[in-house]
Amino acid sequence: GEECKIARVVESNACKHCIRLFGTSDNPIIFSVQELLENGTNVGVSASEWKPTIWPVHPNCRCDTRMVPPGMTIKDGWMVLEDEE
After folding, report:
1. What's the pLDDT tens digit per position in 39-54?
2. Is the pLDDT of residue 84 over 70?
3. Residues 6+ apart with CB under 8 A from 3
4. Could you please report the per-residue DSSP string of the chain?
């Protein structure tokens, strides 16, 4: 639903663009699904203008998508309550 949050978790050898857009694998940026859908795709856009998307950022992107339950976040590689940040 609208409250659903997700994290795009980068691989250990992720490119600089994915790290810039999604954060590190241990501390990824948490997005609403709606926010990522509204960013569309990065097709035909220069890399410097890429936005975080729900779709792969580039053709060789292997970043993982993880659901983050309400009230939770990912910190230091662990799913924790937001209060514990």
Report:
1. 999 999 999 999 999 9
2. no
3. 32, 70
4. -TT-EEEEEPPTT--HHHHHHHB-SSSBPEEEHHHHHHT---TTS-GGG----SS-SSTT---EEEEE-TTEEEETTEEEEGGG-
CB 77 within 8 A of CB 12: no
Question: Tokens for 29?
Answer: 């940026």
End-to-end, the C-alpha distance of the chain in Å comes to: 24
Q: How far is CA 51 from CA 12, 22, 68, 70, in A?
A: 20, 10, 20, 24
Tokens of 3: 């409250």
What mean pLDDT do residues 25-51 have?
A: 94
